[in-house]
Amino acid sequence: MNISAIKVKQPLGEFYIAKIKAGDLLKISTSSVARYDKDGNLKGNQRPLDTKRLKAIANFIMSDEMSFPTSILIAANIDREGGIIEKQNDRWIVEKTNITDVFNLVVPDKISSLIIDGQHRLNAFNYADSSCKEIELVCSIFIDLPNPYQAYLFATINGNQKRVDKSLALELFGYDVENEPQDTWSPEKLAVYLTRKFNFSKKSPLYQKIKLAPLYSEIDEIVNKEQWLLSTAAMVEGIMSLISSNPQKDRDMLAMKRNSIWGDKTRQILSDNGKPVLRYLYLNSKDNELYLILENFFWSVKTILWDNATENSIILKTIGISVLFDILKSILENYGIQKSFDLYINKIKDVDYSNNYFSLSGGGKTKLRRILKFKLGLISKSDLLDSDIKFLEENNISII
User: Which terminal Cβ of the chain has fewer Cβ within 10 Å, N or C?
Assistant: First the structure.
């Protein structure tokens, strides 16, 4: 199925507005009811379907006054559990057209999306006359929307409509934690909180630079350096890599400790084997110290690398930020915490980050990681591939 769509850019990120027939949307989408599994983990982000409500909506659908002018929110390339669909043939594809901001969405003929909001409106068509499934619905389509943001949009939208249970909303938001003791935050909650702090603090080196974006987009891979965006997922995953070897296990452990309202559900109940490198800060709730380390690192990266990068530089892309977190981790492990990271970032400033050697295909991330670690003295020449050595020689970079 091919759908014409208009791209919309807003502070949270970009999405697409399109019309889809109700019958077609029922075939390609599903919803995920919020529920606790046998281990006490919260799954899904929606209320259970209410049959009485569905039948009432169906009567409206079959009436002469039927109109659904508001959008149904869709997370494309998301399965029922909220995870990103990886198989290429099962994914929505976004194609450019000759018209600015108008794109063609190629949709697989199978369930390949999750309804974030509007499941009752959509499922009510199953209770209406079959001819009603030809009715077109307005849809707002997010590509590869991370699971915490699916819940965030649902809770935000419905917070002003039908009351959402407060404890459930806190779980769904993930980072709306103002009423939850800080020392109870899971690695993911802390990582999202710090990511938002970087994005919205005017004194941050990442101020208004972190946005949601498709993980597998072939569109706008190269953006103007005055407008480039970092992936929220990459930032969150990068921060988590510094404080937890198994975020899922940490989250589950915190969720199971419910002996009282907050009880002993604090980070200090979690195991500490000395890894990852900044886990001790997380366990001791020294979040400000963690933020300061990251802030110092990214100020060095911004002033030395990002501000001088060309618009097609890989260091401005999602895989660039991922490798930078790997580099930070190695610096901390080998050289300790630094007040300034200028010394280390200056050692990698002469790398040609726009070189085709670091193309998005062909293992660009691993190539970049090896080159930067070699430049920083973290690996030796024997750890390089022949192609790495050729790249260094062609760019007049010493390999002695």
Answer: C
* Complete DSSP assignment for 17-67: EEEEEHHHHHHHEE--B-EE-TTS-EE-SBPPP-HHHHHHHHHHHTSTT--
This prediction has a pTM of 0.58
How far is the C-alpha of 258 from the C-alpha of 303, rounded, in Å? Answer: 45
Phi, psi angle pair for 15, to nearest 5°? -150, 180
Q: Which of 76, 87, 111, 321 is nearest to 214 (CA)?
A: 76
Instruction: Give the Cα separation of 367 and 349 in Å (integer).
Output: 16
**Residue 114, strand partner residues:** 30, 75
The two three-digit tokens of residue 4, written as one number: 């014409």
CA distance 278 to 272: 11
Q: How far apart are CA 294 and CA 194, in angstroms?
A: 10
Q: What is the pLDDT of residue 228?
A: 55
Q: Which residues have CB under 8 Å from 102's CB, separation 6+?
A: 4, 5, 6, 7
Predicted pLDDT of residue 179? 53
Measured CA to CA, the distance from residue 298 to residue 304 in angstroms comes to 10
What are the two backbone dihedrals, phi and then psi, of residue 116, each rounded to the nearest 5 degrees?
-85, -45
* Per-residue pLDDT tens digits for 210-249: 765 444 333 344 334 455 567 777 888 899 999 999 887 8
Name the phi and psi angles at 309, rounded to 5.
Answer: -80, 150
- Residue 376 · residue 327 · CB < 8 Å: yes
Judge contact between 104 and 3, C-beta under 8 A. yes
Cα-based angle 336, 358, 211 (whole degrees, multiple of 5): 70
Let me know: does 105 contact 5? Beta carbons within 8 Å: yes
Q: Give the model confidence (pLDDT) of 139-159 as tens digits.
A: 999 998 876 676 667 666 654
